Amino acid sequence: MNETGWRGSPEIWLETAYASLVEGGVEAVRIQPLARKLKLSRTSFYWFFKDREELLAALVDRWRAKNTENLIGRSRAYAETLVEAMLNVFDCWLDRDLFDAQFEFAIRSWALQSPEIAEEVSRADEARLAALADMFTRFGVAPLPADVRARASYLVQIGYISLNTSEDLATRMQRVPDYVTIFTGQSPQPRELDRFFARHNYVPGEPAVAMR
Terminal CA-to-CA distance of the chain, rounded, Å? Predict the structure, then answer.
């Protein structure tokens, strides 16, 4: 077995730290408990990270890349209409590969204990809101209404996450057309909804599947 194998790897330590953060909050992200989970020695950790603070910083970097960068990316994705652009953003709320709601909840909970993380969250919120406002202005919405619509669409989803709300996929999908109409002022066309539903493997009328 090579040296990296028996010590783990940076990715394995980070993935275990992520799981611990999501399950138990930042206090659960400690070197010895992580080593026990991995069945590795505590000293193995130090081959990859200088200390716990460096590991925590890596978690924040992972959250920033996963949630903020993906959300901004979806706001800039090609769309022929404002409704289609909004549905591109909605992909984030339905695809964990694009936006991890549990990770978001864990980071925001950590922010309540840490001024530094609270600043990180504030910067992320500002960047996400700016990207959404830019999306609206790209389709001809004036700056002030664009800002308001961006805040409405984003803060509703952050409310879902902060309240740890759970609803089945069918219920979420049934609400999508009205949410889009409220946020954009335009009603989605059947073909736009059909493409959106197909991306998420949803067939109207099929049995409910629980989701976050």
Answer: 40
